[in-house]
Amino acid sequence: MASKGKREGREKESASALAEGVVAGDKRSLARAISKIERGDENLPALFSELYPRTGEAITIGFTGPPGVGKSSIIAKLIRLYRDEDKKVGVVSVDPSSPFTKGAILGDRIRLADHFLDKDVFIRSMGSRGHLGGLAAASRLAGMTMEAAGFDVILYETVGVGQGEVEVASAADTVVLCLQPGAGDAVQALKAGVMEVADVFCINKADHPQARGTAAEVRSILEIGHELDPDAPVPPIVLTRGDTGEGVAELEKAIEAHRGHLIETGGMERRRRASLRDFVISWATGRLEKEMEERLRGEDADVMERVYERRLDPIAASGKILRQA
Ligand SMILES: Nc1nc2c(ncn2[C@@H]2O[C@H](COP(=O)(O)OP(=O)(O)OP(=O)(O)O)[C@@H](O)[C@H]2O)c(=O)[nH]1
Ligand SMILES: [Mg+2]
Fold first, then answer.
1. Ligand 1 atom nearest to CA at 67
2. Which terminus of the chain has a smaller tally of CB atoms within 10 A, N or C?
3. What is the pLDDT of residue 38?
4. Closest Cα to residue 162, out of 181, 135, 127?
C-alpha cells in the first residue's frame, strides 16, 4: 500500500512538473504533454487538472475542407498575420479519415516550413489511432495544452468534409470551411452537413477561372438556408489565394467579425458551453466503452458466448455488462 501511495505520489509529481513546464512555455514539455494525449497516458487526468484552469482565453479557429483545397497554405499565411500582431500561434492538424497521416504531415511540413524556426509558432499533427473520447477530444486536448502554454491563437486543421471533421472543427469558436473552384465540393459539403456548422466560407485558388462561379454557387445555397431560417446570419464568403496570400487579410477580418458578433450576442458563451458539454459526454462515453470492452474480455467473457448461442439476447446482455440486471 505504502509503495503504491509513494508511486502515485511520484506520478502526480511528474505530472505537475510537466504541467509546470507547459505553463512556462517550454516546447519540449508541450511536445511531451501532447504525446501523452496521443498515448492516452495514465497521468493525463493529473496533467489536465493543472492545465485546464489556464485555458479559455485563446482565439480558436477550425479549418475544414476537402483534401488539397489549400487549408495549410492559408493557415501559413494567417500565421504570418497573427505573428505581425505579436500573437503566439498553435496549430493542431488532424486527418480523421486516415490512420496514416504521413502524407498530410509531410504536406503540412512543407507548407508551414516558413514558421518552423519561429519559437512562437507550434505545429502538431495528430493521427487517428484509438484515442479515448475520440479524435475530436484528443485534438481538443492538444489545443488546450497549447493554450495553457500561452498560445494566443489555436488553429485546428482537419482534412475532409464528414462527421468526424465537423466534430473536430466545431469545437472551435469559429469554423472556416475551405473549398476550391469547381469539383462540386459545395454540394458534397452541403450533404455532409458541414455547410451548417461553417461560420465563414473560404473559396481558395481564386486564380482559378471558376472561382467566382463557385462563390456564387455557395452563396445561392446559403441564401436558400437563410430563407428557411431568416434569423440565422448569412456567413461571409471570402475568395483567397493560399499561394500568394491574397484575400487572407479579408479572411482574418471575417473571422474577427464573427468572433465579435458571437461575443456581443452571448453566442460565444453558449457555443463554448455546448462544446465543453459535448467534450465531457464524449470522454465519458469513451471511458465507458473501454470499460465494457474490458468486462467482455474479462469477468463477463461468458456473456457473449450466451449471446452467440442464442441463450441471451443482446439487449439483456448489455444490461448485464452495465450491471443493471
Ligand atoms: N493555384 C493555386 N494553388 C494553390 C492555392 N493555394 C494553395 N495551392 C496549392 O494547392 C496545393 C494544396 O495545398 P495545401 O495547402 O497543402 O492544401 P490542404 O487543403 O492543406 O491539403 P490537405 O491538408 O492535404 O488536405 C499545393 O500545391 C498548394 O501550393 C491557390 O490559391 N492557387
Ligand atoms: Mg493541409
1. 25
2. N
3. 86
4. 135
Cα of 73 vs centre of ligand 1, distance in Å, is 6
Task: Name the stretches of the chain with pLDDT < 70.
Answer: 1-13, 96-116, 128-133, 183, 185-186, 189-192, 325
Cβ–ligand 1 distance for 248 under 6 Å, the answer no
Amino acid at 154: I
What would the pLDDT profile of 86-138 be if each residue is shown by its tens digit?
999 999 988 765 554 444 455 555 556 666 678 899 998 887 665 666 778 88
Pocket test for ligand 1, best of 74, 243, 251 (most atoms within 8 A of CB): 243
User: What is the reported pLDDT for 126?
Assistant: 82
Assigned C-alpha cell, 2: 505504502
Residue identified by cell 505520489 is 9
Q: Is 67 close to ligand 1, i.e. is its CB under 6 Å away? A: yes
Are the CB atoms for 65 and 185 separated by under 8 Å?
Answer: yes
